[in-house]
Backbone:
């Protein structure tokens, strides 16, 4: 199959590209960074350098493809989050229609039903007569890297969810495997597939990570929504994005997101948090 991957060689894109290449598929990886060209080609994939907002570029790249993997990246500097996401969504829809693509896998998230400006699922509303799999992964293990500075300075993980809140965590490798399966499976219609690797409370997750970095009593403290919003703003996040993240995390704290997940509970992936914790510990001790 001729398959197009968006998202460059990120946490999902790299293992997904490797799996597809190893299985004998022809893969084109879209990246906005020309410096990624050699790295992409080293995996024996083709590099297509351009922006997702450029509908003409996407149409040309999508032409002749059997399947497309679509993801919409966050831009942590964009003030108009909603406008930015809509521009990318419109570009995707136009390119998919113009290029005549019949098979699409789109990455959203397990909190996709929460009202935010970041809604990759809006692409689905404008596509018909094609097969679409919407992947809804839980909270990425790799997100924990973003807490390293906080743990070093505050001695704890803090967010407006935590403690005994039950979370479905997921390894990007397991997401890549799910995306591979959906890209290479022929079916008709639309479907939603949740993806998770392990289910546990935030306190249990903190305990596993804490043990590996020498802080066995590491706590995951639950902040108020207002406190979390102020933290995000102090980090320099655009106001719209800060509110979106607070709303998503509040829905996780209330149990709304987890209950929706339980109604669509998947078979858990192979990579457990203890496996990831080894890489986390290496990154933690390396960071000054």
Residues:
């Amino acid at each position: 199959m001729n398959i197009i991957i968006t998202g460059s060689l990120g946490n999902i894109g790299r293992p997904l590209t490797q799996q597809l290449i190893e299985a004998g598929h022809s893969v084109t990886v879209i990246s906005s960074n020309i410096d990624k060209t050699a790295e992409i080609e080293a995996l024996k994939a083709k590099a297509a350098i351009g922006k997702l907002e450029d509908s003409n570029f996407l149409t040309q790249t999508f032409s002749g493809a059997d399947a497309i993997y679509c993801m919409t990246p966050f831009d942590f500097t964009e003030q108009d989050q909603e406008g930015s996401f809509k521009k990318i969504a419109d570009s995707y829809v136009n390119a998919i229609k113009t290029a005549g693509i019949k098979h699409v896998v789109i990455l959203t998230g397990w909190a996709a039903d929460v009202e935010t400006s970041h809604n990759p699922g809006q692409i689905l509303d404008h596509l018909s007569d094609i097969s679409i799999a919407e992947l809804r992964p839980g909270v990425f293990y790799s997100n924990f890297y973003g807490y390293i500075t906080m743990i070093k300075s505050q001695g704890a993980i803090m967010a407006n969810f935590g403690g005994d809140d039950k979370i479905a965590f997921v390894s990007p490798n397991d997401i890549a495997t799910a995306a591979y399966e959906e890209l290479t499976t022929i079916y008709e219609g639309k479907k939603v597939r949740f993806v998770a690797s392990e289910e546990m409370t935030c306190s249990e997750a903190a305990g596993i990570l804490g043990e590996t970095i020498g802080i066995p009593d590491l706590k995951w403290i639950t902040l108020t929504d207002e406190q979390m919003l102020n933290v995000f703003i102090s980090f320099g996040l655009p106001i719209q994005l800060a509110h979106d993240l607070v709303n998503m995390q509040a829905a996780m704290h209330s149990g709304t997101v987890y209950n929706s997940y339980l109604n669509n509970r998947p078979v858990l992936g192979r990579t457990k948090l203890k496996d990831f914790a080894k890489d986390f510990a290496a990154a933690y001790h390396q960071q000054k």
